[in-house]
Fold these 4 entries.
Entry 1:
Amino acid sequence: MKKLLFLILTALNLVSLPLLAQQQVNADSIRNKMQWFADAKLGIFIHWGIYAVNGIDESWSFYNKKISYPDYMKQLKGFTASKYDPESWAALIKESGARYAVITTKHHDGVALWPTKQKHFSVVKNTPAGRDLLSPFYQALDKQGIKRGAYFSLIDWSHPDYPGFTKDSTRYKISDDPKRWERFQKFYQAQLKEVSTMYKPDLWWFDGDWEHSAAEWQAATVRKNLLSANPQTIINSRLTGYGDYETPEQNFPVTKPKYNWWELCMTINGSWGYQPQDTAWKTPYEVISIFADAVSNGGNLLLDIGPREDGTIPKEEIHVLKELGKWNQKHGEAIFNTLGGIPQGHFYGPTTLSKDSTTLYLFLPAKTSGSLMLKGLKNKIKKIRVLGSDKQLQHKVVGKISWSPVPGLVYIDVPATVHDEYMTVLAVELDGSVELYRGKGGLQE
Ligand code: GLC
């Protein structure tokens, strides 16, 4: 009888309701905790470690055998942090307009930037820096109202119980020595607990998950532990699928990614850490146009800087951050707390929308001027403002056929005199929430 009742209830979809309700609650709470991230748009990534001493690839240089492991580790002796000024780092990050910062607490080389109690390398025990570098930085971020992000490498090529070492040598196979792997799991999870309790990151930026499966990393347990310490913390995708948002690296999405939340991480030259021979600096305009493109497609930009071993930041990076900040000051209305823009094809440039979708922001790449076209806009335009100025622009609707539901084409007159040094943004104020015509122009659709 019970079984029959169960079958009937299942058929009526009643038994599964609580589960669905639970899933809904989970989805809502994830959306809530992700809100600041969705609004933030810009973060600054910091790769700082002993690799800055020689100015070589972070960790990868010994993995790829460009340098021997002992020579790589000799850099420990040269890492001084002698001019480290976390207050000025935080002030610069603030000036750039960023809302969060992510620092390498430990890269694949295993050297911790905090006083880890585990038996392993740290800048506190093993370098002349001799102190906790994270505390003063996170405190300085707090003062500026910037969220705390912790990059943490799952891979630890220096640890004697970690299987991987260089590109052509490993220490052991997990299946041959599961106890040894268990020791490593305990070790790295103890380190995570230290960072979690000492610094309470708002965001975890894992890296290096590709060397093992989710089961081997115990990714579900790691996620559970971090969330039980802080239910609001956000986790990136590099925890073998146990994260909250996606992290394309260096490569710019061409079509709008389907993820709810994503973040493009990108270097200002071609390197994550300090490398003086790498002078392929992106210009402020390039960074700004990439940033606008990411935001237009519903994502964030995590822009990387690589300080020197003494803690000073290369002037080229300072320049880009300051110029980006200047531009953000003027155009912040179109960037922060906005929504990703309208689908591609309506306007040949990035777009964003105000939260209520009644203002459409058009980003004008490459100082475009003349008559700009906007397609498929059903709304009436109330006003067009040039951000950061008191100028308003005129528009004209072309080709509207009285009996057709297809809207006319909007042409906006943009004189060259309105141009921003980097990228001009127009605010198109609409008579209501944006409504678009998405058809093919046929008579009946
Ligand atoms: C890569 C590299 C690493 C770098 C990271 C930043 O995964 O392994 O060196 O820290 O990207 O996104």
Entry 2:
Amino acid sequence: MEAIISPSLLSANPCNYGEDFKIFNNKDIKSIHIDIMDGHYVPNLSFGIDQVAALRKLTDIEFDVHLMVTEPDKFVEALVEAGANSITIHAEVALHLYKSIHYLKSFGIKAGVAINPATPIGCLEHIYPIANRILIMSVEPGFGGQSFIPFTLEKIKALNEIKKRNNYDFTIQVDGGITLGNIKEVIDCGARDIVIGSSLFKQDLAENIDLFNKVINEIKNIP
Ligand code: DX5
Ligand code: ZN
């Protein structure tokens, strides 16, 4: 699977979503990352369900919802109705993770599980066969614009080894602190869905998408 970039709307200017979505269409962006925070699991607030529904009217691109909330199951049905195509919940708060993954899948959407930098990948061992995506957080969740935590590269690499060895289906996603300086490294380690916030929306969005895609294409073209 080729790597894709998923723009994280957290860093976008809320007055500009319509224009940004046009750029995503022109640049063939496959997935838009939407962070939902409850002020409990993380010390911040962000998008709500009604905003997801309003944004859905502006584009057909996949909505990848990253739920940073303490009770994720509570919001799943409403989010699917609002237009989420993929929902990722945090392993640290899912008391019944196996059940929650099946619950997500019962809506016909992609089911993802995220882990924070200090959470070991081993806690996901029993859900590897059923998860559609595993999100390795490369910053502590809650805010855009933080610096990439280097040891998370080892987690991506180890997870990718497990994926290859067992032929698992899940996609490895990485989120937090991705820049033009480290995107190659995360892809080399095995990440294929690269969430990018502040590095994409600073200055010219279209130009930045081109710059990131250039790096991805260079990796692709290595024999
Ligand atoms: C952080 C969010 C990220 C955030 C990434 O909790 O999950 O999706 O938008 O932003 P950058 O790329 O600026 O670290
Ligand atoms: Zn996120």
Entry 3:
Amino acid sequence: MIALRFEGVSLVLDVSAGQLPAIVHWGADLGTLDLADVEALILSNIDPGGPNVVDEPVRLAVLPEHWTGWVGRPGLSGSRAGRAWSPKFTATDVRVDGKPVINGEDGATVVNAGVASVAVDAVDEEAQLQLQITIELCAGGLIRARAELINRGQDPYTVNDCVLVFPIPQRAREILDFAGHWGKERVPQRRALGVGIHLREGRKGRTGADAATLLHVGVPGFSFANGEIWAVHTGWSGNHTHYAERVFTGVQLIGGGELLLPGEVILQTGQTYSTPWIYGAYGSGLDAVAARFHRFLRARDTHPTTSRPVTLNVWEAVYFNHDLDQLVELAERAAAIGVERYVLDDGWFGARRNDRAGLGDWTVSAEVWPNGLHPLVDKVTDLGMQFGLWFEPEMINLDSATARAHPEWIMATGNRLPVESRHQQVINLGIPECYAYIRDAIFDILAEYKISYIKWDHNRDLIDAGTAPDGRPGVHEQTLAFYRLVDEIKAAHPGLEIESCSSGGARVDLGVLERTDRIWVSDSIDPLERQQMNRWTSQLLPPELLGSHIASARSHTTGRMHDLSFRAATAIFGHLGIEWNLTAISAEELAELREWVSFYKANRRLLFSGDVLRVDFPDANLVMYGILAPDRSEAIYTVAFNGSSDVMLPGRLRFPGLDPGRRYRIRPIPVGRPPSGLNPPPWWGAIAKEFEPPGEHRALHWGLPPDGGPGLVLSGAALGSTGVMAADMHPEQAILYRTEALD
Ligand code: DGJ
């Protein structure tokens, strides 16, 4: 028996009597437990059975086994040509942090604080299968599990499916996961959990803009602040599943795994199949669940520092029109307003003058860049900025030298090509020669230029993604090869950062995040959309990993127009970038943009080390997002009106999460121009503004000193419960606030 406890979470495992590990409790902290407590908990968890089911209580292991009488989805589905399809594993060894505990003196290991890793070895002699299950309690109080299956038989063993599960209590009956599509990623959806399986399959060969991302099941009505929630995330960038199951007995669980295509994994003698990590987060309210993932990610040695450089990406400024003079002018203007990293996007290589040609030919286009990228790279680095470059290593256009030379490298099921998508096909990194070619091409570019950053794109689903000559499914291998390639590049280029982009935000998962440093949330930079997408993407990732740009006034994806104040007040809560043709904007706009860049730089340490706060409002038009310093000494918030309300004024705004016993000064933060239609409440102490006739919707001055004025002093308790009157403003506008502790 093993009881683990960390960061407000207890995890109690039953590993007794040579059985696979089963979770007896995963949830609220149970305090210090001794052996008798753990035994009592295990006993308390055994159900009384019922009519017309197997005579022994069915024990739900982390890898559910059919032989126990479990008739829900099994953990392992596979066979040796029809045999060994219902294995019965016997645990042979249990270790906690590498130390054996089976046959131990006291029979229980209680780790009362800290991260811990439990490994259980098991075997089924008859089925000739060996299994290792690892369960960890990680930083942030997150749990995760994975399995390794080894074929010990002479005949091949086909793995059809291998999932791991975490049991959840019956009071958790409401599901929240995500939908989405290009330009609108991570749209929350809720439904009730009934008997059966709520199954989310990702069959796109990449994580997908429509991925479940996180599947939560909580007590009905759970919100950002309240309600117990158990959530699962599959840390994998290929085909995958997330699911919640409620069986007829009332047993409930959440789980996930890789989704394997027919015959994709056939283990020869001695070969191993490893599942991805399946992560679990427990918390009261969605913010608490998100905080576990954030703390887990921030605890990594490789986690980027809080000084995330302000980035200029040229994509929406120039698209494929690479003109050195304009790109240099962009660089000069960017540097002048404080940009720290410059990223050259798609279009610099081969015949890539549009999206129909060139993918796969990773050499600089002599036609567009007669002197190579040197003039631009030199200019950018001379200006003191880092240089970043776009690649899409897993893709190929038929109109490319590489496709003409190696048609067998294109993923396909046989003699026909898959349907095209964005005029491109997938190049097969599972073929060693192809992998070596792509790796060497990237290495050559990295050797020639001073490149600090790669934007790694992936712009189509994997359809009919097989391997020549017989067309066997290759998504599993492709996903592993992608990971290997990133790992190799990173190992050879310490300090190089990589952004995970996939038609916007279609590769957002902890598998890719184990090895990359930023994700591109969406190709939609419209702040109205980003208010939602950034907010929900931060359910998994902390703000410093979310690529968050300020784009042109008219959104290229939605056509909507927004003031710079709204675009910027939205973007600064992520890793700030600019994706806007700075060569075509006015001096006033540049000056205002510079103000926002300075504000971001002055505050990024807080923004990227604090706890994310999202406030529940009955009126969905009102959106509030805050970052609280871990010691609660200060916090920054954005309050956005995404639409018009049914009532005239939004009323009081609460600022929860502060230390109730401390006194705080709250004040607005005036950056750039004020939001349109600003009507400040008296507590701002703003200088009365002159009457603005209807139609004049742009207030030019805040009527406040640069520090925001005296504001109000209130206790954390009062700010969290009573709140202060909100300023009014027009829809699609935002205001920043700051709270600072005075004692
Ligand atoms: C899709 C990405 O999401 C965009 O940001 C851009 O890099 C294009 N691909 C380039 O083709």
Entry 4:
Amino acid sequence: MPAAPLRIGLAGLGTVGIGIVQIVQRHADLIATRAGRPVIITAVSARDRKKNRDADLSAYAWEADPVTLAQRPDVDVFVEVMGGHDGPAKAATEAALVAGKDVVTANKALLAHHGQALAEAAETLGRVIRFEAAVAGGIPVIKALTEGLAANRIKRVMGVMNGTCNYILTRMQSAGLPYDTVFEEARQLGYLEADPTLDVGGIDAGHKLSLLAAIAFGTKVSFDAVELEGIGNVSIDDIRLAQDMGYRIKLLGVAQMTGRGLEQRMTPCLVPADSPLGQLQGGTNMVVLEGDAVGQIVLRGPGAGMGPTASAVMGDVIDLARGLRLPTFGIPANQLATPIAARSATPAPYYLRMTLLDKPGALAKIATCLGEAGISIDQMRQYGHVGIHATVLIVTHKAAPDDIAHATAGFAATGVLVDAPVAIRIEEV
Ligand code: NAP
Ligand code: HSE
């Protein structure tokens, strides 16, 4: 007797939802062979039934309410690709679990805010939640961490996880354009989320980092503890000067377990221009995983878009069709530790840019502030003069973030600064 199909209830028929419909329809035979059983869509939901979606949805039942969809008896797996960390996405996911359905979601915001509660509910109810598409789109990074690297103690997780920010930063660099101009370009190209601060404020990437950290370190998702700084203050001057010193600026996420607790930060950083992260162009994502046995793994690929994101969702669905059932964050939810949030204290070299009054002793005063904070200078350049002002660039040897903050606060009292100094961490990658 042929194996029973796995039946999807699909909530959301936007970019990702239609990508899923296309894969299910185009690769029905391939998927059935690989999964050992057919995978079909039985019912769908979106807000506007009349919208033209360039897809044949005629074989699927329509539900106006995603909660009702999630509870249908002809649905085995509820696929949530609506978005939003509360509202219908949360209500329908909870309803699906209670109704005995497994859940596959691309929704990083939902899991960053409610991941622990949902994972506990799923396990209590004997259900599974999968979310490969939520982090780095088409890159199978969740699978790499939970399965391929399961034998490793993870030392550090790092990466560029928001394609829009990487597009903006690389376009600023390659075209020499200021942030505001490129932000507007990104908006015209449809790259920005409906609320752009999710992208440029680092929030979307922070959501993703917090999910990776939970798996990597066996801790409860703690998005609120991520140190977040977006790219809105990255100037074209810093992009140019960093390039001149052999670096690129990236919105870089780093999570690592230290003796003080779990450090999670998503901030603009300099990385060497010739490193894999430095070479990353446009909307591409890159995740670097470091395990004690394996060393360093670099995963690179499309972090968004219809095909890549639907590919990741369907990978999860096919796992469920095959009978692969893992805890949401790799270990049972009730064994996830409550992390102690540690502010970033790991020393690193820093890039410091400042505009000084071009007069005798000005630079000496800055050097004194650094010396008094125990910070040693590695490289220094002065860039011309504008009237009586000069731009000075300093790259320090490794320094603790607090010492850098102390030194730069001290600059203000020297009376030689023209405007606020810029300090950007240089990440060793
Ligand atoms: P989208 O294009 O805006 O589509 C959202 C879909 O959800 C639309 O079909 C919308 O219906 C439907 N929807 C919204 N609210 C609903 C409600 N209350 N009831 C029923 N349906 C509702 O979004 P998307 O880009 O596909 O993203 C979906 C999810 O995937 C999000 O969580 C996003 O963060 C995640 N994700 C997206 C990408 C990507 O590249 N796009 C990558 C990774 C992860 P209407 O069409 O009728 O308005
Ligand atoms: N806004 C996100 C990005 C979409 O630019 O990477 C994929 O999560």
